[in-house]
Amino acid sequence: MSRVAPVLAASASALLLTACGAVDDIGGGDDSASAQKGDDITVGLLLPDKDTARFEAFDHPIFAKEVAALTHGRGKVDYANAGASQDRQSRQFQEMVAKKVDIIVVDALDAKAIAPDVRRAKNAGIPVIAYDRLAQGPIDAYVSHDNELVGEVQARAIVEALGSRAATSEIVMMNGDPADPNTARFKAGALSEFKGKVRIAEEYDTAKWSPVVAEANMRKAIRAVGLGNIAAVYSANDGMAGAVIDALKQAGATKVPPVTGQDANLDAVQRVVAGEQYMTVYKSFLDEATDAAQMAVYKVQGKDIQYDALTQDKVDSPTEKAVPATLVPVVSLTRDNIKDTVVADGVYSVKEICTAKYAAACAAIGLT
Predict the structure, then answer these.
(1) How far apart are CA 169 and CA 167, in angstroms?
(2) Which residue blocks in 49-146 are alpha helix, DSSP H?
(3) If pLDDT is split at 50, 70 and 90, which confidence band does 36 have?
(4) Crossing angle for the helix pair 5-19 and 22-37, nearest 10 degrees?
(5) End-to-end distance of the chain based on CA atoms, in angstroms?
(6) Is the model's pLDDT at 30 over the cut of 70?
(7) Which of 124, 242, 260, 354 fits a disulfide with 154 by CB distance 3.0 to 4.6 angstroms?
């Protein structure tokens, strides 16, 4: 999948606006709105957990850096992490409403449970942008990825890895948290690829995306199916993939069957290098967090041209229709393209990936 096309499309849109004189015609409106709110703004950022490494390591710092850059260092990010507790996230949300932040960007731990807080913010005149997961309630916009495509990419990798054995193979599905709306989308995408191609022997949902729960469920699967009969494991994210691989090893697997993942965590990339994890889905943290920060600042400052250029997609939630959205492309990361993805994007350096433990494996694939 090309990650260049959306950029080219955005550039073309910008050129078209300039050619038509649209930017010049309403540039004064943007300046007026900006002056009205200015750069001295506060953006609330609520992330769901710390088990998913990307949130603390990438999403938060990238988001904060972009807000600072867009506001000449005057804008502030009021940040809170729910630590996998829905009650805590609700309290954090309400605290931000009480503080009268200018806008809230939330990655909802529970998309349905957060809806009353979204309505509370809306009643207080505070816009809400759903980040990564599509929150219910009257959100103003949504930034994430094509989540069904994520599942399709993961499942396709398994089918391709199994090759001619696919039709007679049994696999285990380790889905994410059922309270996360993305889980259903990942699953739907995966099942569309698996249909008629492989047999799903066991399937589990994983509360709060917990690696501990995933490992326990994998042990159940091994007992039910038999270690030697598990041809592959669909794991919805990297945290669970690591737990699945640990369970397989502890059960006596000398060669780990293909295991998928998502998020391109550093330890997952290293497992891919070592051949323990078959693949992970790389979703550009830089693009997603940067787009979210831009959407938040542009929304507060009334820069409609820039905001609309970022929200040309539309998505439906159970409570809202045609929510303005931006969907960032995804990439299947394997041993063959590590250098062209996470290394090229500056997510990790070769030195960070290729520690002493993985030096030989890195050398074998030319990652030096």
Answers:
(1) 6
(2) 53-54, 60-70, 86-99, 115-123
(3) low
(4) 100
(5) 25
(6) no
(7) 260
